């Protein structure tokens, strides 16, 4: 069946605008080849299902999955019994195991969350309690001098050591998951956008178009699909676009679609430094919208600082489906980084920060609102058979990816 669908996908460019779109029945469709979509596709394929992954980009992982801190989080920050807490803890275990078994570069380097003033110590104690309740093992409160002995460049009054935290090469991870999914029969179709859909009887009809046809689209006037897919299961894992996309699914009640907010986070790298000043991940106390400007190391030992939080708006559908977000890093933002970083790294030299890259958080709550959990909806929530929506998969989505996949397959496969 999939072979036939593929032929139709390849034929798409020859379909004239006036011709009605061909319709094809398929087993499972995953929208979005970010780390979460890929992990879901692999899991469904391992369960013996025929899977087609559609991504508007030219390859996998061009969205948030390649624009993050690449940290394997332990599961400390999230409210007890939240999906973030459960999937982070489970996902971390699955991820370390997968990386070890598949030679995906990773390193369990551990993390220090630091209080730089006595005023912050109660918050550190809360994090310790929360993490322990979430099932994070090995957390240990350190006196400032103990932490500064481990990290001589660090300045702090107390620190929470999380030995379970680590780093991973996210590109290698996605490459490995894609390979495994393909070996189990999954097909990836790139430059292929989902532009809408409708519910017909018991089945979601999903409208497909070549991404190049969206280039000059105003996002408002009707766009003729070139192919309509009728899957038994469709997983909307379109990341930043997930809410905007299903607003175009006729038959899904809008009350189930959460408002989308976007928070850009910029990174700066440390220039002209031969030896990395830190061996561990160093995090300040979390701030509104993010985890604070922290220190991350990559697997080559290069240091980067970030991400900060900058709320952005004015995102239209075309921009979002084609990942045309503004990912530029304004060098002036460094001015805000220096004082933040110097709270825990006082010897940071003037002029040593260089603009690096930016990512955008797919958030479900806005500035000064309480953080919202991951939202995973199936028919039991919204009443549309075979449709699974993944909304607000921000941090710790990379860490959680394999646990989300496990959950989606266990709960929604019919
Ligand atoms: C600054 C920042 C730092 C982070 N740091 C960490 C961290 O250290 N650890 C951690 O665990 N998590 C972290 N995260 C979170 C993590 O990166 C994300 O949760 C994860 O990458 C989300 O993956 P995804 O597959 O859901 O989305 P994405 O990677 O965004 O993938 C979505 C895909 O959908 C495609 N798409 C969109 N619209 C359409 C359409 N209409 N049709 C077809 N395809 C479409 C896009 O092209 C894209 O490839 C961070 C996030 C940010 C922004």
UniProtKB/TrEMBL annotation:
Gene3D superfamilies: D-Amino Acid Oxidase, subunit A, domain 2, FAD/NAD(P)-binding domain. GO terms for molecular function: (S)-2-hydroxyglutarate dehydrogenase activity. It catalyses: (S)-2-hydroxyglutarate + A = 2-oxoglutarate + AH2. Its cofactor is FAD. Residues 27-410 form the FAD dependent oxidoreductase domain. Keywords: FAD, Flavoprotein, Oxidoreductase. It comes from the Eukaryota. InterPro entries: FAD-dep_OxRdtase, FAD/NAD-bd_sf. Its EC number is 1.1.99.2. Pfam families: DAO. The keyword Oxidoreductase applies. Belongs to the L2HGDH family. This is L-2-hydroxyglutarate dehydrogenase, mitochondrial. It comes from Citrus clementina (Clementine).
């Amino acid at each position: 069946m999939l072979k036939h669908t593929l032929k139709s996908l390849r034929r798409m460019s020859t379909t004239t605008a006036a011709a009605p779109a061909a319709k094809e029945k398929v087993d499972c469709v995953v929208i979005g080849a970010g780390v979460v979509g890929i992990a879901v596709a692999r899991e469904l394929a391992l369960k013996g299902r025929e899977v087609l992954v559609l991504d508007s980009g030219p390859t996998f992982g061009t969205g948030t999955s390649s624009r993050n801190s690449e940290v394997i989080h332990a599961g400390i920050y999230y409210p007890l019994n939240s999906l973030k807490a459960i999937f982070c803890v489970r996902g971390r275990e699955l991820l370390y195991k997968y990386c070890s078994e598949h030679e995906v570069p990773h390193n369990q380097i551990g993390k220090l969350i630091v209080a730089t003033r006595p005023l912050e110590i109660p918050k550190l104690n809360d994090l310790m309690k929360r993490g322990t309740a979430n099932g994070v093992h090995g957390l240990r409160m350190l006196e400032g001098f103990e932490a500064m002995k481990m990290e001589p460049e660090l300045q702090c009054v107390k620190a929470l050591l999380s030995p379970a935290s680590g780093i991973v090469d996210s590109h290698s991870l996605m490459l490995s998951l894609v390979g495994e999914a393909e070996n189990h029969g999954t097909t990836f179709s790139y430059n292929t956008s989902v532009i809408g859909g409708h519910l017909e009887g018991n089945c979601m009809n999903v409208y497909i178009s070549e991404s190049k046809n969206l280039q000059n689209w105003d996002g408002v006037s009707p766009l003729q699909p070139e192919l309509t897919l009728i899957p038994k299961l469709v997983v909307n894992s379109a990341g930043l676009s997930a809410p905007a996309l299903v607003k175009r699914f006729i038959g899904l009640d809008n009350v189930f679609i959460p408002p989308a907010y976007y928070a850009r986070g910029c990174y700066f790298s440390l220039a002209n430094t031969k030896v990395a000043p830190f061996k561990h991940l160093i995090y300040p106390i979390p701030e509104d919208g993010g985890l604070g400007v922290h220190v991350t190391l990559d697997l080559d030992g290069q240091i980067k600082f970030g991400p900060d939080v900058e709320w952005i708006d004015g995102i239209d559908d075309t921009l979002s489906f084609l990942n045309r977000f503004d990912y530029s890093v304004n060098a002036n933002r460094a001015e805000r980084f220096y004082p933040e970083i110097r709270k825990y790294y006082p010897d940071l030299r003037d002029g040593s920060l260089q603009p690096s890259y930016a990512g955008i958080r797919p958030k479900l709550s806005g500035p000064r609102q309480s953080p919202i959990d991951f939202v995973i909806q199936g028919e039991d929530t919204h009443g549309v058979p075979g449709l699974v929506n993944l909304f607000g998969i921000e941090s710790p989505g990379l860490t959680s990816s394999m646990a989300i996949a496990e959950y989606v397959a266990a709960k929604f496969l019919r």
